[in-house]
Amino acid sequence: MGAVVMYASVSVDGFIADAADQPGPLFDWLTNGDVPLDASGALRVSQPSYEYTRPYWDRIGATVVGRHVFDLTDGWEGQPPSGVDHVIVVTHRQPPEGWDRTTPFHFVDDVAAAVALARDLAGDRIVEVAAGDVGGQALAAGLVDEVRMDVVPVVLGTGKRYFGSLDGQHLLEDPDAVIRGDRVLHLRYQVRRRPAS
After folding, report:
1. Contacts (Cβ under 8 Å, ≥6 apart) of 162
2. The predicted structure's pLDDT at residue 196
3. CA torsion, points 11, 136, 176, 154, in degrees to nearest 10?
4. Percent of the chain with pLDDT over 90
5. For residue 140, what pLDDT band results from cuts at 50, 70 and 90?
6. Are 162 and 23 in contact (CB under 8 A)?
7. With 80 as the cut, is the pLDDT of residue 164 above it?
8. CATH label, 4-190, candidates 3.30.390.10, 3.30.1330.60, 3.40.430.10, 1.10.1040.20
9. Backbone angles phi, psi at 30, to 5 degrees
10. CA quadruple 78, 80, 82, 88: dihedral positive or negative?
């Protein structure tokens, strides 16, 4: 099975959005470069960001998000983002009225069940878990193998935390990737596993 990766762009002070759910400059690095990141040409990044991000995106088989992200994006209008095959939405609510249930979106009411379904659907490809509350829950449950952060040089001060409301200490290994892009620092950490007792 593929790795489970918690991922998002994040401010230097650890926020993935401001208090009004706006990313502010957190995604500017995705549009300020010369190299097209996807077929649309709308996303253009620096060469180092392309070399780090594109291979990762190509390996994602399923993405796990919370209902809040799903609602903010209007469910991506039924089309998973960035060519991902499946989106698993963690929610206790039913899909929106009139939602086309033939789309590759799956609604699950438990983080562990969502990650398990995502792993089944992704096969040997990566399962991406969106940072925030759902990502923090997955990390706390020991379900995350790797943490990826695109650290943007801005201090938001308040907002939605990268690790959500995670309580307690979780150790990561030393970063095994530190890539400098234009207005972004790409970091990758493996999650340190606790010894079995």
Report:
1. 8, 10, 14, 15, 16, 131, 132, 135, 149
2. 57
3. 0
4. 87
5. very high
6. no
7. yes
8. 3.40.430.10
9. -80, -5
10. positive
